[in-house]
Amino acid sequence: MPEYGRIIQQLVERCKELPTKEERNEMAMAIIDFMGQRNPQLRDEENYKHKLWDHLFILANYDLDVESPYPFPTREQLAEKPKKMEYPKLQGDFKFYGKSILQLIEKAIELQTGDEKEALIEVIANNMKKSYNVYNKEHVTDDVIFRHLKELSENRLDLTGIDSLEKSKIYYSNNNNRNNNSNNNRNNNSNNNKNQPNKRRHNNNHKNRK
After folding, report:
1. One-character DSSP codes across the chain
2. pLDDT (tens digit per residue) in 69-119
3. pLDDT tens, 31-61?
């Protein structure tokens, strides 16, 4: 472990030669403190004290008779290869988009219609286009990306009715305006219906006065 230097290695060898366990324990604690001072970046890591004791035992060539607050590792444990991590698989022909795109699509589906959703969909489509171009090494048209987005979102994000990414924001804005106008019309009709009895009552009162 060259990061600790020759001085610490010599201290470890000296610790192994001490006659009593009490002396070795005292010196081992001093070496641990010195190792922490020489490598302060280790303090930012989780359980850094445990790592220092492991490193001390490795520097001692797994032969150090001291009392440690942590169990010392064995050669077999350190030589053991970590288990292979399971990589999430993307089904179909869209594996080059990656799992992050699927996560962003699910996030966009959950959002209420508005500026935030529009911006996220635009980001998703642009990143899909970049991933496609890098993986396939060829230019892809926006309508292909829109079809893939529709399929990956199970028809819940549909931009196939527009020509290009540049028009996507206008497309969503127009849809929002149509929805807002429809809601406003319903509200106006509702208010007009509420006011109609008042108008009839006003007309009846006018006739009675005559």
Report:
1. -GGGHHHHHHHHHHHHH-SSHHHHHHHHHHHHHHHHHH-GGGGGSTTHHHHHHHHHHHHTTT------SSPPP-HHHHHSPPPPPPPPPPPTT-GGG-HHHHHHHHHHHHSPSSHHHHHHHHHHHHHHHHHHHHHHSS---HHHHHHHHHHHTTTSS--TTSS-GGGHHHHHHHHHHHHHHHHHHHHHHHHHHHHHHHHHHHHHHHHHH-
2. 888 888 888 788 888 877 666 556 788 888 888 889 999 999 988 889 888
3. 999 988 888 887 777 788 888 999 999 999 8
